[in-house]
Amino acid sequence: MTKGRAADKEAVQAVREIIRRTGHELRNALSGISVNVEVVRSRLERDAAAKDLTAFADRARLQVGVATMLSDGLLALVNAVLAAESEGTLKSVPGHGAGTQTELMIYGEGAAATLSDIERLASLVGASVEHHGERVILRVLPEGKSHSKD
Predict the structure, then answer these.
(1) CA distance 14 to 140
(2) SS3 state at 92
(3) How far does Cα 11 stand from its chain's mean position?
(4) Could you tell me if 134 and 123 are in contact, meaning their C-beta atoms sit under 8 angstroms apart?
(5) Is the dihedral of CA 117, 67, 33, 16 positive or negative?
(6) What is the pLDDT of residues 80-109, one digit of tens each?
(7) Cβ neighbours of 143 (radius 10 Å)
(8) CA 133, CA 145: separation in Å to the nearest integer?
(9) What are phi and psi of 21, to 5 degrees?
């Protein structure tokens, strides 16, 4: 491995560590929001005069769930892409927008969880995920469409 390639790998590892730590802090923050929204919701249910506010707390709880899925998926995707780039297994079709696709390899101990997080992200943002063993193909769909398939 050349000196430059080794430095690039170290840089990617540093970014991956920052992403891991950021993910931990994001999850902590979202968990805190979720707990506090649940406290507000349960207290509102006890107060007959404030019952109409319960719907807002319920919607906030659902939005925290979506934010959690988005952040988990984005963190998993960025980490997987950086890992594939570092290992030389990242491939993409030139272009941007609908129809763009990227191929990477996802394997190892956390592969199933990583793929699951990426699939949930894809379903929320208009991308498809196709996988065959360790080989994963991500494709950007036209606006307004979303699906994931095995």
Answers:
(1) 28
(2) strand
(3) 22
(4) no
(5) positive
(6) 998 888 888 888 877 777 778 889 999 989
(7) 9
(8) 25
(9) -65, -40
Under a CB-based contact definition with an 8 Å cutoff, are residues 106 and 76 in contact?
Answer: no
Q: Is 0.85 topped by the overall pTM?
A: no
Place of tokens 């272009």: 95
How far apart CA 115 and CA 110 sit, in angstroms, is 9
Provide the token pair at 11.
């840089």
Q: Scanning the structure block, which residue is given the tokens 């540093």?
A: 14
- So where are the chain's domains? 3-140
Q: Would you state the structure tokens that stand for residue 8, as one six-digit string?
A: 């690039």
Separation between Cα atoms, residue 124 and residue 66, nearest integer Å: 9
Bridge partner residues of 34 (DSSP) = none
Given a cut of 70, the residues of the chain with pLDDT beneath it are 1, 4-5, 7, 144-150
- φ and ψ at residue 93, rounded to 5 degrees: -95, 125
- Distance in angstroms (rounded) separating the CA atoms of residues 75 and 30: 14
* Pairwise CA distance, residues 63 & 147, whole Å: 20
The H-assigned helical ranges of the chain are 3-46, 54-87, 111-125
pLDDT of residue 130: 94
Written as six digits, the tokens of 111 are: 């592969």
The three-state secondary structure class of 24 is: helix
